Amino acid sequence: MIILLGETAGAREIGEHLYNRGLKYIRMQSWTDKTGSPIPSIVIDASHPSTRMKFTLLRQWCEQQGIPYVKLERLETTVPSSPLIFPVYNWDEALLQLEQRVDTLQQQKDRPITIFVTTGSHKLESIVNSSFAHSARFVVRVLPEGRLVEKCKEIGLHPRDIIAMQGPFSKEINRALFKFYGADILLTRDSGLAGGTDTKVSAALELGIEVVLVKKAKNNTGFTVNSTQELLDWMDKNFVEFIMV
């Protein structure tokens, strides 16, 4: 049996391919030591990077049991060198960088600073409750799912500042949205070409918008693939005969 972790676009894509191949799998959104030991042949982790800590115990259990634990990690995006890009490697660094950029830009512009957020809904509370929130307007782009829109409203975001759209988006669409909402700062995560990081960054730079880019932390634990096709090819060579039932 295959266990597929996550609710990302990558997880949905993998699920579709597994279904089309007639491979049975179970979707899991979380796991703790109280969940009980699963009985998988392989675990595929396509979860959002910000939620991956939830599966640490499961990964450790798989290592102990000799069960393959495969992570889907998009290749890092090659971004141009620009004084407008501020790379960070975790969420605490992102909040600190945002605080510094908001303070600097507010002194220059003497008005609230608009931050266009494309990092998903997982860390929105920490942004809305941050020390610089009183000096900023947050425009958030999330997947067009009712529960995500409701979550945004529950933490205090105004409906006019919630964009519910399914990406990835072209540079032209990103540029139009950034311009329409008057973005001063783009907060985004390096989700690779498949996640449209290149088009978001290039659109922001064309408009002179600063970019706080949350890059991928270096992590050498587990086996990693960089695309759905690479995962499927690896499974074809190593595990298909064991996971048909």
| Unreliable residue runs | none
| Strand line-up in the sheet with most strands | 5-10-9-6-7-8
N/C terminus separation = 6 Å
- The helix/strand class is alpha/beta
CATH first level of the largest domain: Alpha Beta
What does the largest sheet look like? 6 strands, parallel
Per the CATH scheme, the topology name of the largest domain is Rossmann fold
What would the average pLDDT be, to the nearest integer? 87
Describe the structure.
- The chain is of the alpha/beta class.
- It folds into 2 domains: 2-73 and 218-242, Rossmann fold; 85-214, Rossmann fold.
- It is 35% helix and 20% strand.
- It has helices at residues 9-20, 56-65, 91-109, 124-128, 146-154, 171-180, 197-206, 228-238; strands at 2-5, 25-28, 42-45, 69-72, 85-88, 113-117, 136-142, 162-164, 185-189, 210-214, 223-225.
- The protein has a 6-stranded parallel beta sheet, sandwiched between helices. The protein has a 5-stranded parallel beta sheet with strand order 2-1-3-4-11.
- α1 (9-20) links the parallel β1 and β2 (25-28).
- The longest helix has 19 residues, at 91-109.
- The chain starts with a strand and ends in a 7-residue tail after the last helix.
Explain briefly what this protein structure is.
The chain is of the alpha/beta class. The chain has helices spanning 9-20, 56-65, 91-109, 124-128, 146-154, 171-180, 197-206, 228-238, and strands spanning 2-5, 25-28, 42-45, 69-72, 85-88, 113-117, 136-142, 162-164, 185-189, 210-214, 223-225. The longest helix has 19 residues, at 91-109.
